């Protein structure tokens, strides 16, 4: 039986979900999707970029990821609304729950898109097109937003089909349709091809996906190494990964934060690093993981990225111990002069949390480590129940941020909102 894979992608998800909530829950009469509007970060901070925009805003040339001031230059009447991650998490859960009513094999790729294995469901829903139409109609009527659905025999081609014309469309891209629908597209449109790879391919005279599909794989391997062969297979529509309904275990934990002002002294950097360590360590303890490798990543005010890492003698999930190592890594990585606009902490080489091995040279005694481990767990429980601000370290007294990084406060504290 030929596989049937759907890729379902919410159209302008953050904006759509905000619009649905405002109209159907708050009772507002204006629909943001019908106005030149966008979801954007704080324009007074460095996170002030466009996160999602309406079709009306798109007609003015507003682009996702561009600074707010540029978007407002293109569209002076642009309506801006702040992001609301708690709402997005709730909406995403409703979205994936509805998809699982069609098939138990749903793999969430991001907060607003998922693959669905619809193989063998023709007896329930008819042809793949009929099933997609029913799915799209139910999502629109029951949840209030629109989606694009790509249909094919594997995940890659379904994903590519879902990225064709938007919004609220259904597209097929079977292997027999690749030459007509896929190979004519610019090579940059191929899944996982970025700007750097595009430039390398252009130097080889490869400008369309069809050019890549017909290229000599030996040349691609010589010029691009192993990724070149993977891209050649992708351009030819070869992709064998199955839809995995169970998410894979984390291979690492990390958070980074872009700062409202450049950091120019170590003490300020340490405070930010501690807030990141709090978040990373709490997530590891929640999943009963420990780390044996820590990395500190830095970005200068000139957008130069650099990082440094350390392998630990003992795997740990202790906030205090991770922070102590992170400060040491930071001191080795930073020259003490370059202004920093972004800091990150990453934990890899994960292990299941087990009994700790000690030696004569351990900085922390076994008794002290066990006491700190119990304290960490108590603090985690209190923060999960009452919010991150219920307990804070002395150095954060008077500060707004206790735990920083890519996870919003709402997501970390489990707050959710209803969505229709």
Estimate the mean pLDDT confidence: 86
Assign the structural class, choosing from mainly alpha, mainly beta, alpha/beta, alpha+beta, or little secondary structure: alpha+beta
- Our estimate of the beta-strand percent is 15-25%
Could you describe the largest sheet, including whether it forms a barrel?
Answer: 5 strands, mixed
**Assembly state:** single chain
Query: What string, H for helix and E for strand, traces the elements in order?
Result: EHEEHHEHEEHHEHEHHHHHEHEEHEHH
Shape field: globular
Calculate Rg over CA atoms: 24 Å
Task: Give the arrangement of secondary structure elements.
Layout: E1 5-10, H1 13-25, E2 37-40, E3 50-53, H2 55-58, H3 68-74, E4 79-81, H4 85-102, E5 106-110, E6 113-117, H5 122-125, H6 128-143, E7 147-152, H7 155-162, E8 170-172, H8 178-181, H9 195-203, H10 209-214, H11 217-224, H12 226-235, E9 253-263, H13 266-286, E10 289-300, E11 305-316, H14 319-333, E12 340-352, H15 366-386, H16 409-413
Parallel strand pairs: 2-4, 7-8
Antiparallel strand pairs: 1-6, 1-7, 2-3, 5-6, 9-12, 10-11, 10-12
Helix pairs in contact: 4-6, 11-12, 13-14
């Amino acid at each position: 039986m030929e596989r049937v894979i759907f890729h379902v992608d919410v159209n302008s998800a953050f904006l759509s979900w905000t619009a649905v909530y405002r109209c159907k829950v708050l009772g507002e009469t204006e629909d943001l999707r019908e106005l030149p509007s966008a979801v954007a970060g704080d324009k007074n901070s460095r996170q002030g970029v466009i996160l999602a925009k309406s079709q009306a805003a798109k007609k003015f040339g507003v682009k996702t990821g561009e600074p707010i001031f540029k978007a407002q230059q293109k569209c002076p009447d642009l309506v801006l609304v702040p992001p609301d991650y708690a709402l997005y998490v709730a909406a995403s859960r409703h979205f994936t729950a509805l998809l699982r009513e069609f098939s138990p094999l749903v793999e969430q790729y991001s907060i607003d898109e998922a693959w669905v294995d619809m193989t063998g469901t023709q007896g329930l829903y008819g042809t793949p097109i009929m099933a997609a139409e029913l799915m799209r109609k139910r999502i629109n009527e029951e949840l209030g937003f629109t989606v694009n659905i790509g249909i094919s025999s594997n995940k890659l081609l379904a994903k590519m089909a879902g990225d064709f014309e938007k919004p609220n469309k259904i597209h097929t891209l079977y292997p027999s349709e690749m030459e007509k629908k896929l190979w004519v597209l610019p090579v940059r449109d191929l899944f996982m091809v970025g700007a750097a790879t595009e430039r390398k391919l252009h130097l080889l005279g490869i400008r369309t996906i069809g050019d890549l599909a017909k290229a000599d794989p030996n040349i691609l391997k010589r010029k691009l190494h192993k990724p070149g062969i993977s891209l050649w297979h992708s351009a030819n529509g070869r992709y064998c990964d199955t839809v995995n309904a169970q998410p894979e275990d984390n291979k690492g934990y990390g958070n980074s934060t872009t700062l409202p002002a450049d950091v120019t002294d170590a003490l300020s950097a340490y405070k930010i690093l501690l807030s990141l360590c709090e978040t990373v360590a709490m997530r590891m303890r929640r999943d009963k993981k420990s780390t044996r490798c820590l990395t500190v990543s830095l970005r200068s005010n000139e957008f130069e990225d650099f990082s440094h890492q350390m392998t630990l003698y003992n795997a740990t999930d202790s906030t205090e111990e991770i922070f102590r190592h992170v400060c040491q890594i930071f001191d080795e990585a930073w020259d003490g002069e370059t202004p920093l606009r972004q800091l990150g902490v990453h934990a890899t080489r994960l292990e299941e949390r087990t009994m700790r091995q000690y030696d004569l040279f351990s900085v922390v005694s076994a008794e002290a480590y066990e006491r700190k481990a119990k304290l960490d767990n108590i603090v985690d429980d209190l923060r999960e129940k009452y919010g991150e601000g219920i307990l804070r370290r002395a150095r954060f007294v008077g500060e707004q941020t206790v735990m920083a990084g890519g996870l919003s406060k709402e997501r970390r504290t489990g707050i959710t909102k209803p969505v229709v």
